[in-house]
Structures are given as structure tokens and as C-alpha cells.
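Standup notes
- HV: blocked on the assembly model, inputs below
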Amino acid sequence: MINLVPRKEIPLSLTLTTTAVAVALTLIAGAAIFGVLGYDPLAALYQFFIAPVSRGYQVADLFVKACPLIIIASGLVFSYRANVWNIGAEGQMILGAMFSGYVALYWGGMPAPLLLPAMILAGVLGGLAWAMIPAILKTRFNTNEILVSLMLTYVAVLFIDWTVRGPWRDPMSFGFPLTPMYPDAGMIARVDLPGIGRLAQLHWGVLGALVLSVAAWFILRRTMVGFQVQVMGDAPRAGRFAGFSPALVTVLVLGISGGAAGLAGMVEVSANIGQLQPNISFGYGFTAIIVAFLARLNPLGVIVAGLVVALAEMGGDAAQIAMGIPKVVTGVFKGILLFMLLAGETFNRFHVEFRLPGTAARAAATAATKESGSV
Amino acid sequence: MTGSQRPDETSPGTTLLAATGICKHFGDFTANDDVGFEIEAGEIHALLGENGAGKSTFVKMVYGLLQPDSGQIIWRGEPVTIRSPQHARELGIGMVFQHFSLFQALTVAENIALALPPGESLEDLSERVRAMSAEYGIGVDPDARIHNLSVGEQQRVEIVRCLLQDPSLLIMDEPTSVLTPQETEQLFDVLRRFSKAGVAILFISHKLEEIRSLTRRATVLRRGRNVGTVESASRSSKQLAEMMVGSSVGDIDGQDAPESEPDVLFAVRGLDRPPATPFATPLRNLSFVARAGEVLGIAGIAGNGQDELMEALTGEWTGAGQNVITINGRDITRDGPSRRRQHSIGFVPEERNGHAAVPGMSLADNALLTSHSLGEVASRGVIDSDRTRQMAAEIAGAFDVRLPQENPMASALSGGNLQKFVVGREISKQPSLFIVSQPTWGVDVGAALFIRRAMLELAESGSAVVMISQDLEEIFAISHRVAVLHDGQMSEPMVTADTTAETVGLLMGGSVPLKTAGAGDAA
């Protein structure tokens, strides 16, 4: 018989252990899959997790790859902590890119120092506006935010596709679905340190992402905003009793997570692409969900988790190039990882007791002998 | 099948069930530690103990819901392993739970048919229910629909359902906690008739007077151990209470009639609240006042509008209109909980876990829960965590909250300790009005006494206290005035010292129409 006994306290060491075990089991399961597919498991794992960071400049690229994941997941943490399930960060990211792109392309003539701040603001507003649709529908009509935010992602994908093929297309693009390039003032610069020079593709947005996740940690742990979010997620009735408004918190966390996703969209395009195209995200908004959970919904953990997941993404490319392993295996890895993490959560929350069916009867017999002896 | 064995094997005086050396652990927690117990055929036997003493765990093992880690159960002289409730029923053990499992939309007979083996027509079954009902004076109509029945009647349906399975032992888990004094007496009459007919009854309770009047013997559990089996009538309530808690207990004897009419501090006039869900109780034209220096008790059986009233008082629901709820003459009807707290009102709702406190958060965070709008713990939205920790420690120190470690999670405290914390959290702010629902529900005798004393001290210092409680003993011990809530309506408050439990009980049961208060004021 197996009993699950709820734990009263969850020590940090246990959380770290279950997370580490989940990652280890993911690697083992991954190795087994490679073996079954006929690849050398160790070589494949090497390509996946070591080769992408075996040179210094690659480490910088890892941070670039992790940047949008860290930004988006830092926002999603608020949403999930409040038990509000924003699954539509992908769409919010696209809208952020489009809003900031509009500023860059049509208002690009403004004074150069103002352009980037204006684009950042527009990016945040774009993601926020897209997230307000599920927020308002949920607070007004009690719709399910999971479905609404997810479905709006597909609307966003088609919206940007239509825009870059239609009204915003560069007449000089020879028919390719691309907008004109952003003005230079609308691009995020690469990090260029005196004496060291450039670090591969590393750009200032990465630094912004790290600052953002530290700020998210502070807001969540040390301010009334974060306190409201956590109380509403843990015990909504206690939240109402404390005087917090469930509707306000729902709007707030969808706003924060949507705004962060929109910011990620702006950063991604301004730092790496320089113009709008049909695909600007490659699923960062969905992958960030896994990042948020791998981080155990802790904004500081998001930095580490973002790097780990970005490594798996880069590893997918490396393994495809070096060994011909299909890139979709990365998706399998992510799926297994999320599954292992959620399974690990059970061991986090519960103490597991194993008992053999025979022990109760044996113990009863011993007790009975003791009893008769004492009489 | 068990019925045929009954005449010879269950003659009074023979041991029906004996348990020896029963142990049960949940993780580190020992719920039952070497418990021994015996009940004779036809005997009414009390199992007595505080909440958490291990009573429910023990009877769940007897009923097959849990398996003991060690120890032996002997049924009619044979050692048995009771594998499941199904098996228990086959052996002749029935149980009536505290919370009923009846389908509200079905009739009594249909509900009973669901629990019995198939094959009997509803007409035949209805006939049997009528016959049994007449034989024991239970008064259950097989054709009535459950949702039209009172709680007491629903409980009788559960009892009939058990009896049709012909048990020789009937376990009743705190059956009187939902009944009025009158309904309780009726239940006891029924139980005494069963006992005469040879059915043994294991009666779980912590109400000492009931145990003394109903049962022959009482087995007392304390912290999972059997501390003795005694003849119930040979001990005073105080002696039984001391066995339960293991030390001498004090008592509060009731409050004198107020000599004057102190100032009205807080007034509710003509509060109406439509039902939020089909199962909620609407509040209808409800009025009362709370006076400085007094405790107003609001008696009533659970489900008569207590939750709805509490939400309207805390400000979790604010739809009552204008000038319905006032403190010191100021209208707070539309203010939410934070604004109401700024008027020096403290609240403790009934449910500790997830309403008054967040189980998964530290005591410091739980202290912050009701003080964040009072301006000293959060400046510009940043939490002063040193201050909240200090607050939590002060509350724990002043209200005797025993902490397993520094600043633990709320879920790490026992029920009584957490209740002392949430009550202490409000009283330590010296509110001019304190509103509490079921202040001592499910806490041990010692903690209950502590909480009641703290509420009385607060009232003596000039604050008004409004206490919603189902516990009549508690109402009569500490309230100066008492009003009764029945079916969403409230009676005119009475001076507690001038009334009796019987009067209040009749109002609680709805058998006397309420003389509602404040009909004139409402206009």
C-alpha cells in the first residue's frame, strides 16, 4: 500500500533535489530514446548539452537565446502564482513586436534617443493589450483564460502574417513578406566593452532581461503587489477577506505577463532581426511556460531555467547538424522535462509511505501476544 | 443474515466488540497509540475526547475505512480484519457520519434504495421504512424529497438507512453538532429505543452533558491514548473535561444582565441579501446593534445564513445599498474589508484554513493579511518584513500560540493554536468592534477557554463584540445579549441572563416564529 501524506513544510533543499532528479531523469529518458532510434546515446547527449557551450562565444549566444525566455517567464510567474493560466504569451509577444515595429517603421523620424524608449513602451503596451482580452472576458463573463489566451495566439500569428504580406510590406522586398529594416536608432546595440570588444551576439537586452527578473523577484517577494498575487493564488477566499479584489489581481497578472511577453517581442526583433517577418518567435511564448515551471515559479530561478532550456534548444540544432538527429527531438525533451517536473512536484508536496500489506496483520499478532503475556 | 444470529449472541452483558492495542500513525503523527476499547451488546457507549484526540481515526478503523498499523479487533469473540465499509456492514456495523451523503433531489426511499442491494421495489421499501419509522418513533416520510427536510430529519434518514441493514452496532459521529436542543432530545429517545432492542450504539461527542444523560459508559481518549473507561453518570462534567484535557479546567459561568443600555457602536438595519447560489440562504430584513462593552451572541444552526451574514459584515460582499451598516453613525455599507478595518473593526471568519489564514504562508505573512491597510507594515507598497515577523511573534507571545519553530507556516500549527493566532491577530489591535464567527469551533477545551476570556476582556475594555456561534454553551457563557438567526432572519436580541437554552433552542429550530428586530428602524 502507498500512502501520500501532505508535508507541512517544503524545505528548499527538497525543491532543489526534486528539480535536479527531474532533470537527471529527463537526460536518462532522452538517452534511452536516442538509443532506440539507433544513435549513440552519449554522443547525442554531448551534442545536445555540451557542444553548444564548448566555446566562449557560444556561452554568449546561449544568453541571447535565453533572453526572450527569461523575460517572458519572469512575467508568467506572476500569472501562475495567482492561479491565472496565461497560455498565450506567444501571441502577446507577437503583438509586442508589431506595436514596437509600427513605432520604428512609421514614427522612426522622432529624435533618435527617444525611439528605443518609445518602442519599449509600445512593445509592452502591445502585449498588455492582447492579454487584456482574456482578462476582461474572464472578469466580466467568467470565460476560461486558458482557452481564450491560447486561441488568441493563432489570431496573432495570422495577424502578423497578413500585415507583413500586406500593408506593412517593404515595396523593395522583391515580394518577400518582410517590412523595411528598422532605423538604426531603433535597434538594440550589441555589448561592446572597451578592451574586450564584442561578445558574439550578446546585446544589451540580455542585461535588461536579468535586471527584469531580479525586479520581478523583488516585486513578488517584497511588495504588496506580489503579496496579493500569492495570496490570491494560494487561498482566494483569504484574499477577499484581506480586502484584495480577485478581478483586479486577474487583470494585474495578465497585464504583467502580457506586458513582459510584449517586451520580449520588441527585444527579440530589435536586437536580432531588425525587421518584422511572419515568424519572429519560434515558440518562445510556449517554451517560457516550461521555463517558469522549471524555475518553480521563482523569478530568480527563471534565469537558470531559461539558460537550461535555451541550451536544449541550441543542442537540438547542434545534434541535427552533427548527427542528423531530427530537431523535433528537442520538443520531446521539453515534454519529458515538463512531465518529470510535474511528477517531482508530487514528491515535493507529499511524503510517500510504503507499507507491505502483511505488516499490519503481523504487528497485530505481536501486539496480541504482548497483551496475553501481560494479563 | 446477521439478524438470525442476534438473539443468542447479543444478549445484554456479552462483549460485542473489543479492540486491543490499536495503533495508527500518519507520517510522524500518532493518531492512536495502544488504544483498547470494549462495547457490550445493546450498550450506549460514549467515545469522548477533544478534537484531534483520535476519536474519528479509531471509529474509521472499526468501520473499515482505515486499517490499524497494529492491534486487534475482536467482533463477537472472533478476531477480524475489517477490510472495508462494505465488510463492516456485512458484519453488522453501521455508521452515521457528521456530514450526510444524501442526494438532495431524490426522495427518502430513493436515497435509501441506492444504499441497499438491488432487487427490492420502491413500494416495498417505502413500506419497510414506514414500519421502522413507526416502531422506533423516528418520523421519516419515505416519499419526502431530501431538500425539503430539516437537518435533523435528514440525519434520521441516514439513521433509517443504517438500520435497514440490520446492524448490531451503530456508530454515530458527533450527531448532535447540527441539532437544536429539542431535536437532540428526540434523537436520544430514538437511540434509547434502539438500545432496548439490542442495538449497541457508539456515540462520539465532546459535549459532556449529553454524554452524561445518554450513555452508560464513556471511554476517554487523549492525544491518541485511552485514558480510561468510566460510568458516565458517576462523573461530573468537570471531571470528564479534566480527563479529556489532562489538567484542571476553569470555567466561565455566564454574564450578568447589563445594568444600563450602553451606547450603540455598530448597527445593521434592514440587511437584505439575495441568494448568490441556489443553495445559499437569503438574508431577509436583518437588523441588530452592537453596544460598547457588550458581547452580542448570534445563535443558530449552521446553514441558516451565518456565512452570508459574515460576508456582509466583513465587507467581502458589499451589495446591501446605503446606510444599512454603520459604525459610530458612519455608513460603511459599501466599504470593502480594508476600509472597514480602518474603522477599527477586527474580523475572524469561521474557517481558519484558507479564509482567516493562508495555510501555505508564514505567520508573518498571515499577520500582514489583515494589517496591510493599517499603514504601519507596508510603506509605498514595500513590505516591512522585520515588522511583520515582530508582529507575528508578539501575537504568538500574547495569545499563547505554541510555535514548532520560528515564524512557521500556518499549516504547521494545530487547529487550536492557529485559532488563537487569528483571534489574537485581531484582538491585539484593540479594535473597537470585534466580529467573529464560531470562535472556538474544533479547538481544544484549553484554547477555547483562552479565546473566550480574551473576547470578554476586550468587551470589558469598552469594545463591542459580535459573536456568531452554533455552540449554545458558548453563547450562554460569554454573551450579554443573544439573538437567533433562523432561515436568514434574526430575532430581537434578548438579555442572556433572562432567557433559557430552551427558549433559544425553539427559536433556532424555527418552531416559534421569530419576532424580528428593527422592522420600524429599517424605514
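- HV (later): unblocked. Chain A has two domains: 1-39+326-375, 57-324. Chain A touches chain B through 32 residues (CB under 8 Å).
- Next: hand off to the docking folks.
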